[in-house]
Write a structure and sequence with these properties.
This protein is of the alpha/beta class and 389 residues long. Helices cover 18% and strands 33% of the residues. It comes from Pedobacter alpinus.
Length: 389
């Protein structure tokens, strides 16, 4: 059995190589750029009107002759002489011969004459070519997470594909004869299966897009075959249950027969002691405890940071620190603990019902407090490390 710190270090030293992939802009939401993106065009690509109004060839009078109109998207060009103007709309191309745009609120129209209420300076209300970005300038840097604004920005530059870090395909394999799907009649000795949808939701919240789910009963051959199939079809496999030492826990033996290399098995922590992590052919396998709260705790502490690292995020393993306990905490444990809790501002309150089979407290928690093993007393306002969830 190893410590939490040793387990995290082993995972950090065995993270698979991040993979890059070129994908369509329509599919890149929440992906992270693996290369800088340079602008292929100037933006705007032409002198652009910032207002609805009139484009002018300025001269020494407040009265201009209106000779035409330019709407956004019009491709025709109009040549203005001094004292001439064209009606123009926001986003439209300003004629090369125009040197200002007067907004419509500061002008009056009488027949074909435009009468300004005040003089206007050159370049007023004209967006110059490349004002936002010039051709070949860096539009977005490697490591940028692509949110709605970033995707809109790239689309506005005419970009249709970008290079991003590939999000791994994750499999969830559920084991256990006692499990029944919600919606079915619950017979004596059975419980509803919740870990699949719980882990699937947690993966989706983390940003994982490709998730496969599998089920297997407590049988060695079936367990082995199901694990082998799931490893083949996924980059990372999460196995729920069957990793302990009971007579019907076949996961560890199946992993050994499939020659999955053990990184660690059993961590000196509560909940989640029987956690397994292994690798095979640049793929990772986690066997999580079957108890829901223990399974979710192990996901947040070990799996989620790994996934974020593969996604291209930085400092994925770093907990938020310096939160003060709202109440004293007496620690008398031979194992480190991850306690469900709620933090606000600079304080954190430990929740009740820490049992590894209970999710009701987890449902309202927003962090896990890490409490190292030992026999000691944490007074109120003591600072503890927290992992947001």
């Amino acid at each position: 059995m190893i410590s939490v710190e040793q387990a995290l270090a082993l995972l950090k030293n065995n993270i698979p190589q991040k993979k890059e992939v070129q994908i369509l802009l329509t599919e890149v939401h929440q992906h992270i750029l693996s290369k800088d993106v340079n602008s292929p065009i100037n933006m705007p690509p032409f002198r652009q009107s910032a207002m609805d109004g009139f484009a002018l060839h300025i001269y020494d009078s407040l009265t201009y002759k209106i000779i035409g109109e330019i709407k956004a998207g019009d491709a025709h060009k109009i040549e203005l002489k001094a004292g001439e103007a064209v009606r123009i709309f926001t986003g439209a191309a300003v004629p090369d011969s125009a040197n200002a745009v007067m907004q419509i609120e500061k002008a009056a129209v009488k027949n074909d004459d435009l009468i300004l209420t005040e003089s206007v300076k050159e370049s007023t209300n004209i967006r110059p070519i490349g004002e936002q970005i010039k051709v070949n300038e860096k539009a977005l840097l490697k490591g940028t997470k692509l949110n709605a604004a970033a995707i809109g920005f790239l689309a506005g530059l005419g970009i249709t594909t970008v290079s991003v870090y590939k999000k791994p395909t994750v499999g969830i394999l559920i084991t256990g004869n006692e499990l029944v799907k919600p919606g079915n009649i619950l017979k004596h000795g059975k419980i509803y299966e919740s870990n699949a949808i719980m882990l699937q939701t947690a993966l989706t919240e983390t940003g994982t897009k490709n998730i496969n789910t599998y089920e297997v009963n407590d049988d060695f051959i079936n367990t082995k075959n199901s694990i082998e199939k799931a490893i083949h079809e996924n980059d990372i496999l999460l196995i729920s249950g069957g990793i302990s030492v009971g007579d019907y826990d076949f996961v560890k033996a199946a992993l050994e027969e499939l020659q999955v290399e053990t990184l660690f098995y059993k961590v000196n922590q509560k909940p989640g002691k029987p956690l397994f992590a292994g690798k095979i052919n640049d793929k990772l396998v986690f066997a999580l405890p079957g108890n829901p709260a223990a399974s979710l705790t192990c996901y947040y502490i070990y799996v989620q940071p790994l996934l974020k690292t593969l996604f291209g995020e930085t400092e994925a393993n770093k907990p938020i620190t310096q939160k003060k306990l709202t109440e004293e905490l007496i620690v008398k444990n031979t194992r480190s603990q991850f306690l469900k809790a709620v933090f606000t501002d600079d304080e954190v309150t430990i929740s009740t019902h820490q049992n590894s089979s209970m999710l009701n407290t987890f449902a309202v928690a927003n962090c896990l407090v890490f409490v190292p093993e030992g026999d000691y007393h944490l007074a109120k306002n003591s600072k503890v490390d927290i992992y947001p969830i």
